[in-house]
Structures are given as C-alpha cells and as structure tokens.
Amino acid sequence: MNQQPIGLYLHIPFCMSKCPYCDFCSYPRPSTELMEAYTEELARRIHEAGERYRGPSGPGKWTDEYLSSLRPVDTVYFGGGTPSLLSTRCFRRLMGAIHASFNLLPDAEITVEANPAAVSVECAMVWHTCGVNRVSMGAQSAQEDELKTLGRLHRWEDVVETVGLLRNVGIENINLDFMLGIPHQTPATLADTLTRALSLEPTHMSAYTLMLEEGTPFYRRGRAALGLPADEDAADEQAVDLWKQACATLREAGYEHYEISNFAREGFRSRHNFHTWQCRDYLGIGVAAHSCMDGVRFGQSRDLEAFLRGEDITEFTEVLTPADREAEYVMLALRLSDGISEEEFSERFGEDFWHKYGDACIPFLQGGFLRREEGRVFLTESGMPVSNTVIAALI
To answer: Could you give the C-alpha distances from 319 to 293, 296, 316, 322, in angstroms and in order?
Structure first.
C-alpha cells in the first residue's frame, strides 16, 4: 500500500447565491438542515475513504500500529461553493472525521475557501483552533461596478475587514483571487484593484481570466450584451494584455510568478495545488469531487440527492497508462515556472526528455516561447499565454 502523503479535497457545494459566470457544482441558499445532512454524509465517506486507503495494521483500532497505518495527509482543502457557509459545528465534525480517518501531518497545509461577506469572528476562531492555516478568498475586484457585474454580494470593504479579522485570530497565510477580462475592466481599474490588494499584503494572489462557460447566465447573454469584444481573438488579446499587466505589477511587488495564474511571497506557494501540478496523489470527497490515487483517476457526479442517500456517485474511473502519466507530467509541469526537470523526467519515465521531445521544443525555443536552462525546460512569459499550443505540440 502506497503510504506517500496525499492531498485531501472536500467539496462543499453551497453558496449564498449563484454567480452568473460560475459553472462549479454549487447550490444557492441552502437550508441549515441540508448543510447538516451533507456534513454527516461527507463525514461518513471520509471514514470510508480512510479505511480504503490505509495500510495493514494489527488488532486494536487505536494502537500505535493502527495509527501509523493511516494514510498520511499533508494538505487539506475545503473548496466549493462557499465552505465558509458551514456552521462551526459542521466544520468541527469534518475536521474530527479527518483526524479519525487519516494521519494528518503536524505541518499540514489546511485551506478554507471563503466569501469575504461570509466569515464571522466565531467562524475564524474555530478554523484557527481546528488547525486551519490558510484562507483563500474570492475578492475578484476592488471596483464596486465590476463586483456588481459579476453578481458578487460582497464589497471591497468586506475583503479589507475579513483580512484583518483572519490575522487577528492568527491566520496569516491569505490568498486573494482576482478576475481578468471582466466586462468594462480597463488597465486603470485593474491597476487600482492591484494597488488596493497589495496594500493588504496577502501572502498569495491568483489571477484568472473570465471564461464564458456553457450553461451559465453569462454564456446565454453573450459577449455583446455583456460589453465584451465580439471577436474572440480580440477578447483574448485584451485578456492577455491585462494578464501581462498583473504579472508585471505583482513581480515588481516581490511576488514569485510560480504558475501561470498564481503568485506567492517566498515560502507561500499553494502546497495543495502542487499535488496536482506535480502529479502526486490527491483524494476528493463530495459531489463533483475528482481524485487521482495510486494510478487511477476518478470523479464523482453532481447528484446531491444520490450523495445524501449514501449511493455510489462515481461518474468515471480511468486507469492511467504509462503514456497517460507522462503526458500529464509534461502538461502540468509546463504550467509551473520551474518547468520540466530533465533529471526528474528520466527518473520517472526512464527516458531522456530532450531525446524524445527536443525536436518539438526547438521551434518554441527559437520563437522565445520556451527556454532550456540548467537541466530544465520551461515556458517564458511570452510562452505562458500560448501554453496550450506549446503543450499540444509536445504531447
């Protein structure tokens, strides 16, 4: 049994309201009874997963031998939805289930996603007491009109207040998410948003481009009604310009641009996301949660009612072939500023990276989209916006 540490993801599919651009699995305005029922079933499935993935042990459930057989966990991520909607009782219940079912390592990164308008002092104190040491907030913008366009319920003042509240209870590691390509967003409004965000001194920042996802209200309204460029190429060019502006501003402020959309102060990279980016095992529990464990990728459906009935909601299972694993490694490693380590590639796959992929890399090296340096191959800043094209050419 593989006893390498895993990342644990818990999906909390509840929100105060459904944002018009969001295609994540979430259900707005849940009742207290529904969230409590979901918590109990989620806790049951955490215990079930702990038993499934633990190593062999002798008699006696709480012996040292048994405890050492539990699968180690070095990151926990409460995602959603809006996990900060959970009551403190529900949150304690889930953390108790994790501790009883897995070997939660002492230095584990424990993250909760939060809406800036949904964090109380009591909630923050309980998080801290339970071991939460990182909070990720969907700030999106500091402009009131942009927040209104996005259907967000919070104000920028809520972000400021929540950051202060979290620090007061001892949670210092705070990520702020921002959106690029918001209707009517300009370089000037983005500059103001970034200036206000930097004044809060977050340890981590993420900048994602607005996508019109099929099935969402934004998708149905269309580009013209939203005030976005009608031409997709023009929209993409505009989004890239805003992304470059964000990159330059955050680098100048001392943030490491370590992944296409992510920036961190030294020592504050998102450890949980690295389970995915470095092709390490991660286990997702809850509706719509995905996993990759011991060479098998699988995902759960969005069927909340079936989940609450205790039914198996596995939607797909895929056993990864060696070729699948290699392609995934190349794709995900190139998202990182560290890029592909030729030595690590050889250790993982028993082949020489440059011998196999060099011919495909050369045009992008010559075009300034890739760089090869000190045994690594990585995207340049010019290459990051066209990463999909580069990756497709390689794999």
So the answer is: 10, 5, 10, 10
Which backbone phi and psi does 296 adopt, to 5 degrees? -125, 125
Q: Could you tell me the pLDDT band of residue 200, with boundaries at 50, 70 and 90? A: very high
In 3-state terms, what secondary structure has residue 109? strand
Whole-angstrom CA distances from 38 to 49, 84, 308 are 16, 14, 6
pLDDT in the model for residue 230? 77
Statement to judge: residues 230 and 367 lie in one domain: no
pLDDT of 369 > 70? The answer is yes
Long-range contacts of residues 342-349, Cβ cutoff 8 Å, at least 24 apart? 342/375, 342/376, 342/377, 343/375, 349/322, 349/325
- CA–CA gap between residue 37 and residue 19 (Å, rounded): 24
Model pLDDT for residues 238-262, shown as the tens digit of each residue: 889 999 999 999 999 999 999 999 9
Res 69 pLDDT > 90: no
Of 245, 275, 305, the position where a domain reaches its end is 275
Residues 392 and 338: their CA atoms lie apart, in Å, by: 19
pLDDT at residue number 62: 67
Q: Which domain holds residue 371?
A: 322-395
Torsion over CA of 144, 145, 148 and 152, rounded to 10 degrees?
A: -40
- Strand runs (DSSP E) across the chain, as ranges? 6-12, 14-15, 27-28, 72-80, 103-114, 134-140, 173-180, 204-209, 256-259, 262-264, 282-285, 290-293, 296-300, 314-319, 340-341, 370-373, 376-379
Q: Determine the Cα–Cα distance for residues 86 and 115; give it in Å rounded to an integer.
A: 12
Q: What is the CATH classification number for the domain harbouring 139?
A: 3.80.30.20
Q: pTM of this prediction?
A: 0.95
Q: Which helix (H) or strand (E) element contains residue 202?
A: none
Indicate whether 58 pLDDT > 60: no
